[in-house]
Description:
By secondary structure, the chain is mostly helical. The chain has one helix spanning about 15-45. The longest helix has about 35 residues, at about 15-45.
Amino acid sequence: MRGMNVPEPFDHPSFATALGTISGYLVILAVMTALLFLVPYGLFFLL
């Protein structure tokens, strides 16, 4: 993250790891929500 313009206290690699972990979990949660709720909802109205 040396090339980005981030404040010095947030330049540690642990912040990048935390941000990556949180964003990864949010992506997985969004995909699971779509598969568990939106797909059945769509199939119900298509059939």
